[in-house]
Amino acid sequence: MSTPTATSSSPPAVSVTGLVKRYDEVEAVRGIDLEVRSGETFGFLGPNGAGKSTTINMLCTLVRPTAGSAFVAGHDVVRERGQVRRNIGLVFQDTTLDTYLTAEQNLRLHAELYGVPRGVVMARMQEVMEMVGLWDRRGSLVSTYSGGMKRRLEIARGLLHSPRVLFLDEPTVGLDPQTRSLIWAYIRELKAREDITIFLTTHYMDEAEFCDRIAIIDHGEIIVVDTPETLKASVGRDRVQIETDDDDAAIAVLREQFGIEASRAEGTVTFGVAEGEQFVPRLFEEWGSAHPAIRSVSVARPSLDDVFMSYTGTTIRDAEAGGDLDRRRNFARMMTR
Amino acid sequence: MATEAATAREGSPTAVARVIVPAGGVRSELRAIKVVWKRELIRFSRDRLRIVTSLMQPFLFLFVLGTGLSRLASAGTHGVNLRTFVFPGVLCMAVMFTAMFSAASLVWDREFGFLREMMVAPVRRSSLVLGKCLGGATVASFQGIIVLCLAGLVGVPYAFGLIAAVFGMQLLLAFAITAFGVMIAARTTQMQSFMAMMQMGIMPMYFLSGALFPVSHLPRWLEILNRIDPLTYAVDPMCRVVFSHLHISAAARRALDPGVTWWGWHLPGAVEAAVVAGLGGLMLSVAIAQFSRVS
Q: Does the distance separating the beta carbons of A85 and B121 come in below 8 Å?
């Protein structure tokens, strides 16, 4: 089966039809259809066990589909494995670096495995390492790197052979907020500089906002594919919680002055607004000195669960099916509700 | 396929040192083999502790056990020092253990995720496995060279023919053992179970091989096990080479280096080397087949 790789100006970066993966009795992926446009940043959202990893593993030729077909960069993931691999970059959730080697040795090894022409290895290596701010540390053993540095190095390595599609599996999971935003800065810079399609999975709704489009996957099926704006709008609101000296008075002020229905939950005044972060400055500006003092404010963005819930009507199963991370997050959420 | 990949890249905009990766071929497979081999060497050179510990065992066997037991065994060795007799066997042991540890690193690679980086690379799995086995063999034969350097201390002459022949044989052994280890590692996800499997394989193989005793006039059961043991066919040619360079009586030679027989037929060294090479090749292909499976 051949595909029109070079005929049209921009063939889809990823094209999936009726993709199924069955393990014995378990159907991990139950017939998904998907098309990711060239140059797009595409997000894959879903709880652990939803079929995200299995789908990515099929797209990067590590797992053979039970049924259906998938083309990545115009190549069949079953029949043209080598071609697919040559055209993709991969950053897995778990580190796949050799920590006993230096950063530079890791990248050189990658260049050799991917057959990067010798003449350009050095220039390209410098370029990708400078992009993630690790060029000065290239001689250090990876075992001396922090978690965030390792992830940055992996991103650099994934780009070394100029892939046409970069797969990022939970690129920021387990990283501190500063490093997370740094990683996203790199990803955005990458999009500006290179002709690349990014396919990523994430748990975080705020990260999904950086994507051009998002697919929500659950039980091995794609539930909805849309832009983050549309999805977020469908979920609605951020949750704001404030601690005050007098909750009843505060609730009254919110109703009369801001037109917001608030309620009391676990010792805080809780309400929903469309744009939580923009609302907080306004709240303080307009909160008269006569009103009860506000002691603390917290804003919670709509989470995967919130979006998820609006499409599937459930989050409980999530907690049961999920790994540690999901469980913790759900537990935390249950505790704050 | 090559042109397809190239044309598909046409029209990339802001070309920032855009790399165009050529499609497959023998050259890229060779590069992959080489880099996997090289990684093995880099990692070994970094691991000082491993170098030291793997040297300790041969020292213990040669100088402590060899010296201690020689007082007991002097009656049976026709005046040949026991240390001299066990030299080929100790060399084999050093090579085997180093090769085994090289293969074991594959289990670590899986555990720490690096294996995945190699498995998704656009090269054949056979290149990866071959590179790994060659790397293990190189590292192990490096260990062998160090033991070879000790030859003079145990009365084995530094003759060029001897060193070349022993080196060649131990290289073959190192490759076969690494292939054996990689074959096991392909199926093992935990270091403990790998080590257990290796102990179960390596120790009986070592003790049955005749590395520590002459292989003639053995009880029937031991003779059978000895002839089944693949390691026998690596140790025996080394013994033969070493003993042919010693100035000892014919009776001593007959007693200590009787050679391996199949139903009375003395196996020539070339056949024994072929047995080791054949088994190594077989295990290599099993290992490749296991790594090439896609779930």
A: yes
- Scanning A215-274 for CB atoms below 8 A from B yields none
CA distance B219 to chain A (A): 49
Contacts of B109 in chain A (CB under 8 A): 98
- A contacts of B19 (beta carbons < 8 Å): 116-117, 120, 124, 160-162
Closest partner CB to B19 (pick from A73, A108, A161): A161
User: Helix or strand or coil: residue B229?
Assistant: coil
Q: B182 vs B87, B128, B175, CA distance in Å? A: 27, 11, 10
With left for phi above 0 and alpha for psi between -120 and 50, is residue B264 left, alpha or beta? Answer: left
Contact A165, A13 (CB under 8 A): yes
> Minimal CA–CA distance to A12: which of A164, A210, A155, A224?
A164
> Would you say A39 and A197 are in contact if contact means Cβ atoms under 8 Å apart?
yes
Instruction: Give the span between the Cα atoms of B17 and B158, in whole angstroms.
Output: 55
ipTM of the complex: 0.83
Residue B273: count of CB within 10 angstroms of its CB: 19
Residues in chain A: 337
- For an interface test with B, the pick among A10, A62, A72, A100 (most B C-beta atoms closer than 10 Å) comes out as A100
Q: What is d(CA B109, CA B131) in angstroms, rounded to the nearest whole number? A: 14
Q: Model pTM?
A: 0.78
Contact call for B42 and A195, based on CB within 8 A:
no
A107, A157 Cβ separation under 8 angstroms: yes
Residue with tokens 């303080």: A284
B10, B120, B127, B293: best to mutate for the A interface, most A CBs within 10 A: B120
Instruction: Give which of A250, A267, A255, A205 is closest to A231, Cα–Cα.
Output: A205
Q: Which of A274, A254, A256, A273 is nearest to A264 (CA)?
A: A254
**Helices within A197-323 (DSSP H only):** 205-208, 228-235, 247-253, 276-286, 304-312, 316-321
**pLDDT in 10s for each residue of chain B, 295 residues:** 344 333 333 333 344 556 677 767 888 899 999 999 999 999 888 888 877 877 788 888 888 888 888 777 766 777 778 888 889 989 998 899 889 888 988 998 888 889 989 989 999 999 999 999 999 999 998 888 888 988 888 888 898 999 999 999 999 999 999 999 999 998 888 889 998 988 888 889 999 998 888 887 888 899 889 999 999 999 999 988 988 888 888 888 787 888 888 888 888 889 999 999 999 999 999 999 999 887 6
Task: Measure in Å the smallest separation between the Cα of B186 and chain A Cα atoms.
Answer: 16
Q: How far is CA B179 from CA A313, B32, B176, B214, B236, in A?
A: 54, 18, 5, 27, 21
- Nearest in space to B84 (alpha carbons), one of B270, B276, B267, B253: B253
The maximal CA–CA distance of chain B, rounded, in angstroms, is 84
CB contact under 8 A, B4 and A6: yes
Question: How far from each other are the two terminal CA atoms of chain A, in whole angstroms?
Answer: 53
Token code pair at residue A163: 């892939």
In this structure, are strands A197-202 and A165-169 parallel, antiparallel, or unpaired? parallel
Measure the CA–CA gap between A55 and A16, rounded to whole angstroms: 10
